[in-house]
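Section 3.1: Structural characterization of target chains.
Under the original work plan, the team committed to producing a structural model for every single-chain target entering the pipeline before any wet-lab resources were allocated. The record below documents one such target. The sequence was received from the expression subgroup and is listed exactly as submitted; it comprises 297 residues.
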Amino acid sequence: MPTRYVTDGGLETDLIFLRGLDLPEFAAFPLIDSAEGREVLRSYYLDYLDVARRAAAPVLLETPTWRANPDHGRLLGYDASALDRVNRASVAFLVEIAQDAGDLVGWEVGGILGPRGDGYASDGPVEPDDAARYHLPQLRALAEAGAGRATVLTLTEVGEAIGVSRAAHEVGIPVAIGFTVETDGRLPDGTPLARAIAVVDDAAPPRYYLINCAHPQHVARGLDDGDWRERIGGLRCNASTMSHAELDAMETLDDGDPVRLAADQQPLLDAFSQLEVLGGCCGTDARHVAAMWGVTR
């Protein structure tokens, strides 16, 4: 079994619903550009260092850059140069937090990417070469800033996954491909997880795959006994059993129950023997991740 890292929970939902911040475009990366924003982020990440200490496990600190790509950045006033700067600064910020902590079992900083589109719904097939060109600048910035790996979260179809993996290979950074699934355990475009992994592995195999932004019950509906399960290296589940469409319409946070979420997730931990990253996604905070790791906060 590989070494398993603690990672964080639902950054954006935590910042909005628990810390009272306004995040236009659901983007956390602009917080890096102010002293006040960095202090909020520091407080957020320190909660997960505490979970890692209690669990006696290493921590993977992942950058707040899920929306730090050209389409979303443009809407927030960030051009290519500004995005390059903020992606690099995000890596440096997390390295500083880890170095200041001093008493961790181990740590790594990873760079986070998100989909070009919505992240909850498929906009149709994506041309892999177009996706590779689109995501290459962010991957290069994260890699050159010192991120040990990159992870793209909440992909909805295979074309963009292939493109991200190709771009990561070009940059020379290990990459994890994160797919999300609907309540039936399939990608939003209807592709079974096993099929999605086979297609991407055939075209441009990443270091491993990750499933995020779905409740464990939804993920479990897509399981079978295939060897593809050995390729799942990360799990970041939602707190809520609601569908993506229901969550998108919510004006309050459904944070579920941390202990129940951990129990619901256990069959997935049993199914994915190569899991090396365990954290949460929408609606989760440090309480949920602590419960996943069998410790309290």
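The chain is about 45% helix and 15% strand.
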